[in-house]
Amino acid sequence: MSMTRRDFHRLLLIGCATSLGAPALHAAPTLKEGVDWAPVEPPQPGNSPGKIEVLEFFSYGCPHCRDLHPHVTTWSARLPRDVTLQRVPVSFGRAAWANLVKLYYALEAEGLLARLDQAVFDAVHLRRINLFTDKAIFEWIGTQGVDQENFRNTFTSFGIASRLAHAEALTSSHKVDAVPRLVIGGRFNVLGNNAHGFEEVLGIADALIEKARRG
């Protein structure tokens, strides 16, 4: 239920989109290392003192990430107060994907993420709009009622470039080579190799949050 670099490249080239079912199943009571989760070695520090930090690594170019998105949105709304979710768009070192990372951070910087986050997923996977170049992104953003010149300035700014570099560093330090991927507390990669849907994957994440809470 994840997309590797090779899968991502293939789907980018052919514009393929897939849809996965998500039956509401529960995680197994006992999690198995190497099947349900894998350790992050070495463990990584978070940026949220006093909180269990959940990182969601994703890409707008990944169809599985689009399918997971509404489930994570609902799930994150009920997370305990000592848990925080941060999304990390991945580039895997490729220019086209880097533009999608910059698009995400530019939308966030401009306060447009709540309105256009799902719209980007839909544009890429439902409408097959090529949002992998600067030109295509600026043209599309104009159709969404956003000032193109202002957005262009944000998109090309040093601040967004810095956030791209930080996202790439996080992807590397957490050993992320497939998306979507949840990492719990800088210690546990959620694999869900035997999961039968996104709800079960999130159940595994819940169990790993409790594991992280116990230290």
Structure explained in plain terms:
The protein has a single domain, classed as Glutaredoxin, CATH 3.40.30.10. Helix content is 48%, strand content 13%. It is built from eight helices and seven strands. The longest helix has 17 residues, at 198-214. It is globular.
Structural class: alpha+beta
Provide the CATH architecture: 3-Layer(aba) Sandwich
Domain count: the total is 1
- Give the CATH class: Alpha Beta
Strand content: 5-15%
> Could you give the order of the helices and strands?
EHEEHEHHHHHEEEH
Query: CATH topology, what is it called?
Result: Glutaredoxin
Q: Output the CATH homologous superfamily.
A: Glutaredoxin
Radius of gyration: 17 Å
Strand arrangement, major sheet: 2-7-6-3-4
Relative helix content: 40-55%
Distance between the termini: 28 Å
Overall outline: globular
* Mean pLDDT value: 88
Task: Describe the protein's topology.
Layout: E1 3-4, H1 5-14, E2 37-39, E3 52-58, H2 63-77, E4 83-89, H3 95-109, H4 113-125, H5 134-143, H6 148-155, H7 158-173, E5 178-179, E6 181-184, E7 188-190, H8 198-214
Parallel strand pairs: 3-4
Antiparallel strand pairs: 1-5, 2-7, 3-6, 6-7
Helix pairs in contact: 3-4, 3-7, 5-6
